[in-house]
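Quick check before the chapter quiz. The format below is the same one you will see on the exam, so make sure you can read both the input and the output lines.
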Amino acid sequence: MNGRFIGITAAKDLRRRLADPAALVMWFGLPLAIGAMIVALSSGGDGAGPRGRLLVADEDESFVSGMLAGAAGQGPLGELFDLTPVDRDEGRRIVDAGDASALLILPAGLQEAVLGEGTVEIRLVTNPAQRILPGMLEEALEIVVEAAFYGERVLGEPARRIADGPPPDSDFFSNDTIVELSTTINTRVRELGDTLAPPVLTVEHVAPDESDASGTPGFGDLGLIVLPGVIFMSILFIGQGLSSDVWEEKRFGTLRRAVFAPPSMSAFLAGKLLAGAGLVGAVALVGIAVGVVFFDLPLPHAPLAIVWTTFAGVALLVYFVLLQLVASSPRAGNVLTTLVVFPAMMLGGSFFPFEAMPAWMAAIGRWTPNGIAVVRLKEIVAAAPDAAGLLTAALAIGLPALAAGALCGRLLRGAFLMR
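Here is the expected output.
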């Protein structure tokens, strides 16, 4: 008799909840929405970084200007910018239209100024709508200017001979000239070797200490760090929403009729908890499925994760029902549960993962009921469940929930019904 009554009560509650699509969207959509945001943030689209468009107006068309323009399209800058040769006027029109990051103008006389005597102005016209890429280009250009100044002081004479090209009566340098230039450059660079390239830093590779390794690779994944807290955020909202149903039962007279029905009030409460377990289990299934699909949660651990989440969620629901039963009115019950649910989310690893909290706050949060559940769920999804720790956590959550459930039964039969 009690079993049938429990089933009827659970089915009734589930039908009522299915008639409230807004609440279902929030409860089930929260893990999906957070999971989608994490995927979007961590995937970075197709993996390519931002690229800018650099326009180069080479008005000197010399050996030096060609090297400078080529350097802007190679190395680290080449990974950030697409190089496009243009003339000055066309480049300004493109930058003014916002279709390029910057315009680099290499004026006529650049090579003569760099390798000889004189001055010349290299102009960089940037797009005011962009900050980061043009700023990086400006920093790189300042380094190039400094390098050209000191390079001319060291290698000016052989560089000028190379830039002037071979003698008028030949298309190539003679072997003796090439040997002479190479020897001159090598000698000057070697003389300044200790000055040009001193060892500023000494890099020593140290293998990580195995004793410091967590042994749980899932903890290093953003999704598996955040997902357990998000799942229990949904469950806390479910607990708050379902717990207020006792006031609805009282308002409609269902609770009074249940008191005088042959099944015990404990069976009535068990039916409501069974309906809550169904909703919590469904949310856990959705959240764990997100972890399997997007965050490489080991599939063999998914059933245990769902069972653990459902068990802990039902225990949290019992706590919320008790809070409603000790409140003096539906409004007071809503205020009381709200005062509990948001601090519980904050401390219990739902708003912020424990890894991002101050040590003292994380230490407190790990001992809250939902914090205990989140910690053990993280171990499960990270493929490192501790059987002894899981059993201890189940007792720490379950035994108080049993006591709270017994007290709920007494209140439903007595003080709560008489208010």
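If your answer matched, good. The chain has 19 helices and four strands.
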